[in-house]
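STRUCTURE:
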């Protein structure tokens, strides 16, 4: 935090010094951004910067400005159709579109912020040119500046396009989604027919409080707990399973090692959604697994011990809470272990042999070597991957959605919130948007999911990966 504050202090301090000590050309750049370059004989660069300034100003006034002016209300004129009795044609009034107002308003604000930062950086750059001229240093021509973008400053050229892409494809949608969370944008307020407006923290309040018909807090707490249990369990079951499988295959007494590796790698080659859809049909209420269990008497046995309701003539592998939760984790182990086995195999083959040999000479048995040397080494190498896996499983849409497509909740508290017991936060968010157009609550859940993922990532990196441990494994 101190470094950030020091950086901001220096940034604004340099800008203030540029304004205070700048000559006429430097200070003129406060109004005409290219003036400082033109005054230092960089005519082309000065013209281009000035044209950019004009383009931004025109864009703000002609395109985003009218929308930004309505950001406080998100529109007041609703769409209306009027039938002209003379011509028998419908005419539409000049209505407001809340969605476009919010989108273009956000873009307009971001453009202003980016332009202000560019304006300040431009002032500092012009002041540096002034100092160079005063010191008799060489000032690059436009051609030399262009050449430097493909030489010493080539990294700027390479990063420009990806940076613009991140801004357009990530930053703007994220800010737009955050704004939606503070509106009443849902199926009853659908643009362009209807307007939506700001409601403050009402949606967040709804997520943590329950009423007679809307029970978001009831569903949210249970789905959050299941999401965290699923993420941790799914990550570490596949992680441990992959390591054990790699150990078994790489054991000196194991025959046909290449065959076993090939068989498990084939499971990775098959598209995951194909495997999940097939398994969901196999474990369906009247799928092949239930047929086999019924013929073998397993279903009757489960009836007798009370694990399956007597009213059911099948085992509800993926259609009842509890059963579905356990089956989802077990199926995920089958899907995820081969990949972790492949990763662990590569790591095991690269463990420093001198450490293993030293441990054997000191009298360590195989379990001690595995627990004291192999596991710490694997955890050190795979630490970032494990963190990424936990976050990915929090947002693991495919496994949950494809396995529980036919799941129907009988709990009215879940049903009133358009949720079901097997949902993760991400699948609940999808249902709210795709099936019920409840964008406001989906945005709130999206923000909560982001906060959880960011918190887990930051905490894990600082606790698990911090420190200089490379020398221990050299």
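SEQUENCE:
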């Amino acid at each position: 935090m101190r470094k950030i504050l020091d950086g901001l202090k220096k940034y604004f301090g340099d800008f203030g010094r540029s304004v205070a000590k700048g000559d006429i050309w430097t200070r003129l750049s406060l109004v005409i951004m290219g003036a400082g370059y033109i005054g230092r004989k960089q005519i082309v660069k000065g013209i281009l910067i000035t044209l950019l300034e004009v383009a931004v100003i025109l864009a703000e006034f002609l395109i985003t400005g009218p929308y930004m002016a309505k950001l406080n209300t998100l529109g007041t004129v609703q769409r209306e159709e009027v039938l002209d009795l003379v011509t028998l044609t419908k005419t539409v009034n000049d209505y407001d579109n809340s969605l476009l107002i919010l989108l273009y308003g956000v873009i307009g604000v971001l453009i202003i912020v980016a332009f202000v930062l560019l304006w300040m950086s431009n002032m500092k750059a012009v002041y540096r040119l002034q100092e160079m001229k005063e010191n008799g240093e060489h000032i690059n021509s436009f051609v030399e500046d262009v050449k430097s973008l493909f030489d010493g400053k080539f990294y700027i050229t390479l990063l420009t396009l990806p940076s613009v892409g991140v801004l357009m494809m990530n930053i703007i949608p994220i800010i737009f989604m955050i704004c939606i969370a503070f509106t009443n944008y849902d199926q009853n307020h659908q643009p362009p027919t209807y307007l939506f407006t700001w409601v403050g923290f009402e949606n967040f309040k709804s997520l943590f409080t329950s009423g007679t018909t809307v029970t978001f807090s009831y569903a949210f707490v249970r789905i959050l707990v299941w999401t965290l249990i699923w993420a941790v369990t799914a990550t570490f079951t596949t992680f441990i399973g992959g390591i054990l499988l790699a150990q078994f295959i790489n054991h000196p007494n194991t025959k046909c090692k290449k065959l076993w590796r090939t068989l498990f790698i084939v499971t990775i080659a098959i598209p995951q959604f194909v495997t999940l859809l097939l398994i969901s049909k196999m474990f369906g209420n009247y799928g092949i697994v239930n047929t086999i269990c019924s013929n073998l008497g397993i279903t009757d046995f489960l009836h007798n011990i009370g694990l399956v309701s007597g009213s059911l003539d099948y085992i509800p592998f993926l259609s009842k809470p509890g059963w579905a939760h356990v089956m989802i984790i077990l199926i995920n182990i089958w899907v995820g272990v081969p990949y972790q086995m492949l990763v662990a195999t590569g790591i095991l083959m690269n463990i420093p042999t001198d450490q293993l040999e030293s441990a054997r000479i000191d009298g360590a048995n195989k379990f001690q070597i595995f627990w004291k040397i192999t596991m710490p080494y694997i955890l050190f190498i795979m630490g970032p991957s494990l963190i990424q896996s936990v976050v990915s499983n929090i947002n693991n849409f495919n496994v949950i959605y494809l396995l529980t497509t036919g799941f129907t909740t009988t709990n009215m508290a879940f049903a009133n919130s358009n949720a079901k017991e097997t949902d993760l936060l991400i699948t609940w968010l999808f249902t709210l948007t795709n099936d019920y157009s409840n964008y406001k609550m989906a945005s709130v859940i999206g923000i909560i999911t982001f906060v959880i993922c960011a918190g887990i990532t930051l905490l894990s990196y600082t606790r698990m990966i911090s420190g200089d441990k490379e020398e221990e494994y050299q």
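REMARK: Residues 2-200 form one domain.
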